[in-house]
Amino acid sequence: MNKYELAKKITQLEGLTNEEKASLVEILRSQKKYGLVWEDKPEEIETRLVDELPVLTEVPERAIVSESPDAPNHILIEGDNLEALTALAYTHEGKIDVIYIDPPYNTGNKDFVYNDSFVDREDGYRHSKWLSFMNKRLQIAKSLLSSGGVIFISIDDNEQAQLKLLCDEILGEGNCIAQVVVASNSAKNNAKFISVTHEYLLCYAKDKETLPTNWAVLKNNINQFNKIAKKLLNSSLTPEEIHSELLALTKYPKYYEFDHYTYVDKRGPFRASDLTAPGSTAKYDIIHPKTKKTCKTGTRGWGYSEKVIKDLIEKDFIYFGEDETVMPQLKNYLSENEKSLPKSIVFFDSQASTKWMKSQHLDFPFPKALDYIKYIGSMYPNCKATVLDFFAGSGTTLHATMQLNAEDGGHRKCILVTNNENNICENVTYERNKRVIQGYTTPKGEEVEGLHDNNLRYYRTTLLSRDKSVKNMRQLVRLATDMLCIKNDVYTEAEFCGKKINPNIARYFDNGQGNRMLVIYEERAIQLLVQLMAQTEDDGIKTMVYVFSPGADPYTDDFEDVAERVKLCALPSAIYEAYKRVLPKRKPKFLDEALREMKTQAEAEANAQQTLDFGEDNNMNEEGGEA
Length: 627
Fold this sequence. Notes:
This protein has 627 residues and is α/β, with parallel strands linked by helices. It has 18 helices and 24 strands. Strands 1-20-2-17-16-3-6-8-7-15 form a ten-stranded mixed beta sheet. The protein has a four-stranded mixed beta sheet with strand order 21-22-23-24.
């Protein structure tokens, strides 16, 4: 019996409502022949989104705005990430280049909340709940990725196998780039059998065929490493001192790869050294480029002459830490041309970020290593990429993005999304990155210069009714103005054509660098606004104009006189269309409609089988078989 015949019998069952029959038919239609199968468990947020629409509204008092006109605009969104992703489906569809997420691993140890309750290890639907949760978010995430976009997902053994199959289904098995093993230095000594000291990083492309191919990280300077290692091993230093010396270079936060373990003798594996050398009598100052204070020298002096040191500094071959208490170290590469592909096994110090967070009195357990997220960001060739993390946690991804920009002169923009459970968004995510931008004080009382050339804007998700009354539509357009600023990357409100306009009628934004946006709330003011524009000189820069309209027409005829100077869009129609693709359906399909689709599918499958059979007969005839 095929699915259509079975569906027909379902419609004849007594004691069921049409809605119940339609649900059974829908389940029957969705049954797979191969792939990952789970019991879908609806979320409470989905129930809300059946009747409500999410919008993003700015918290202006939390905005951090740089004096630099070229500073990238970073976004922090406080709210449920399903709501935020839905809103981003309008502002950023097809615009995100890199997504990194660190979702809950579903360990059963109170790390995964579903419908306001922790999912216990003994929960019979534990994996189904996690897959339902991830599936909805990854489906939207895929729509956000640019054609050359890529997504990185951190995971461990609890859900790695399931996540791999889910990503194969959503993004396509052929778009899997790699599954990276990420080793850490945090051994679990209470393990029963084997101490697991690694997790995974799944990497998928939106479309492998359009993905930039020049992926690379700076290559390790193995020759320099071996030279220094041999010198130290022949010294009178203890193994612990040698290890400490060599470990220093690996803490350079740019590219720390597993194959730094390249020189081994009976005392163990060692790594490249810092700039001091045993027995050296060279005593001179090295001035930290940021704090302008004398760097730490230790007791052995420098391993290079002052002239060589100055030359290395000029060529940017030396890494300086956040302050002068860190020993300056040789970077683990010699030139920008020595590059290699990223490796499928990497190692990062998982304790450094934890220590930094504690030093700043920011309460967050197990933050991701800053160096690790910088490494991920550095893989992608476009240094002007837009980055998204919708499981932002402590905000490491933004911190890493800003640090990476500072190091390589990039102009990456970052969007973070996290809820405010236990005030994490306000007191940890925001506060951390505020300090990174504005500067902070170490526990020793030393001032660390901030990464000032960055803007950070804070938003919250708000829900509105999905009912399309004129009142609701007007409210949506007004509240969606902050989203339009995000969409067009323009935030500075200005006079329109030299005139102040009533903000209840329209609002105009201009960043002075070619981004202009006019939002018209009162359609009766269109004629006057067009006249103002027509009276000003055309400088060749088009203005993005959003017009409230009950339908999809943005009053094109009314803008005829300035048609070459504007790009028109009707609101809220454009928002409804974008949300329609990602929001849950409000009502189930009518039973007869579902049956018609089932019948069409059954007939198509039957026709395909007949074609296949006919083709096999032809092959037999061609090979000399009996007709």
